[in-house]
Amino acid sequence: MNARIIGTGSYLPKRVVTNDDLAKIMDTSDEWIQSRTGIKERHLVVEENTASMCIEAAKEALKDADMAAEEIELIIVATLSADHVTPSAACEVQAGIGAVNAVAFDLNAACSGFVFSLNTAQAFIQSGIYKNALVLGAETLSRIMDWNDRGTCVLFGDGAGAAVIKADDEGIMAFEQYSDGAKGHVLAGINRKNNNPYVKNDTDPTYVQMDGKEVYSFAVSTVPKSIQNVLDKANMTVEDVDVFLLHQANIRIIQSVAKRLKISLDKCPISLDHCGNLSAASIPVLLDEVNKKGMLKRGDKVILSGFGGGLTWGTTLLTW
Ligand code: COA
Question: Fewer CB under 10 Å: which end of the chain, C or N?
Answer without folding.
Answer: N
